[in-house]
Amino acid sequence: MSMNIAIDGPAGAGKSTIAKRLAKRLGFVYVDTGAMYRAMAYYFLSRGIAGKDEDAIAIACQDVDVTIVYENGEQQVLLNGKNVSGALRTEEVGNMASSTSVYPAVRTKLVELQRRLAEKSDVIMDGRDIGTCVLPGAQVKIYLTAETATRAKRRYDELAAKGIACDIRKIEQDIADRDYRDMHREMSPLRQAEDAVLIDSSKMTIDEVVEAIYEVYREAAGIKGAESET
Question: What domains lie within the chain, and their CATH numbers?
């Protein structure tokens, strides 16, 4: 039986960074759900389907298979068996993903594919509704959060390091607004699963968060003493 780790939480909590590090440490597959949405978007574009044509997109979803594999330690996204990783980071694909991810047919199809992947592989998946909706049976569920001001500072530092001018007050307001939207959306709102372990990373380093989640995993997996994950 595969082991599944679900990490949910608000924007800027560090979910993806933590999930990738933990996946590497454990030898799990990190499921980049965003890349899967982009692969779907790329498929729609390749078929000449408009982002506003919900009916055509719903029909097209029936013929899509998206999965994630690792080659030489690098994540590869396969669309109907073809590696499309190099085509997913264009602005056109990103815009299409943003437009089509709101459609129930797209979400239903991707949840089906994500669950199928989790059934056959040890996976770590992060998002806003993984533990509550996508993988409700995950053996390890984490709700990773941090104070709004802390998340804003992290984003500000990230942008500043790239030489991008930004206003930390606006960043903090944007994060607060996004939190509200995520928590109050009609479909799969952001919330902590009843059986999820709450981790507030406000005053923790990345390594400390990884270690904390690893200890939760060890307990769930029944690993005793100094036994290694390897």
Answer: 1-28+122-230 (3.40.50.300), 33-121 (3.40.50.300)
pLDDT of 88-133, one tens digit each?
A: 988 899 889 988 988 999 999 999 999 999 999 999 999 888 999 9
Regarding pTM above 0.85, the answer is no
Encoded tokens for 23: 């996946």
